[in-house]
Amino acid sequence: xxxxxxxxxxxxxxxxxxxxxxxxxxxxxxxxxxxxxxxxxxxxxxxxxxxxxxxxxxxxxxxxxxxxxxxxxxxxxxxxxxxxxxxxxxxxxxxxxxxxxxxxxxxxxxxxxxxxxxxxxxxxxxxxxxxxxxxxxxxxxxxxxxxxxxxxxxxxxxxxxxxxxxxxxxxxxxxxxxxxxxxxxxxxxxxxxxxxxxxxxxxxxxxxxxxxxxxxxxxxxxxxxxxxxxxxxxxxxxxxxxxxxxxxxxxxxxxxxxxxxxxxxxxxxxxxxxxxxxxxxxxxxxxxxxxxxxxxxxxxxxxxxx
Length: 306
Prior knowledge:
This protein is of the alpha+beta class. It has helices at residues 26-33, 38-50, 99-106, 122-129, 154-189, 195-200, 202-210, 212-235, 240-271, 277-288, 294-305, and strands at residues 9-15, 54-63, 67-72, 77-82, 86-95, 113-114, 147-150. The protein has a 5-stranded antiparallel β-sheet, sandwiched between helices. The chain has a two-stranded antiparallel sheet with strand order 3-4. The longest helix is centred in the middle third of the chain and has 36 residues, at 154-189.
């Protein structure tokens, strides 16, 4: 069995109910419930110091703005609810210990201790996470809300690292957009998303801005498909019924127009009135449409010649 590694830093994430803090007096937990986690953090540091773990940095914050989406079976729809308040304590060690030993010393279950991801930015990412500096979609906590028990004041750390963290946020958004672009393209190809909908949604717009060529390609493809589908429907005579009805209506309009002009022409002949240029053109159009009978043809010619 592989030996547990000695950690150089750890993040504690735990709710603020006494049953989750084994062997603790309730007073610092109650203080944290009321918005002040400093005493709780100080006690964590003291417990570790007594177990020969040297803490070089210790920061803490209460996260109380979390929400989650749950399914409401009664209403048959999703609903939003507030998650339980909890603390995040970030600890860095000059001399650490294994995750199980740290958990036992602190008085919490090991699953509530998070190791930093491997790489040079592992601890820095945990520092940023205290206020969600790199997570645009999460509530942005004020760095003044972070309490410092050991090490450089967190507000100083935040101001020193802020620009780097914002660049990291942009990189993270770009990475997330790459994961979302395939879904977005699929929605476009299925006809479930229009470009207008994409442009009016901030998150979709971000994905589109970083992947516009791919997504525009999807819009081009769906346009081509609609065109080909319409052409096939025409060739398959799917529009015959609609076309027949249109032609019937058009014929009725023509006949009504013929009858109207026929009656007007008779009046013009009887009254010996000169026909204007517009009337002549209209009568000629009727003749070209080949919808007048011979009687109307001779009557029209007599009006035009008059």
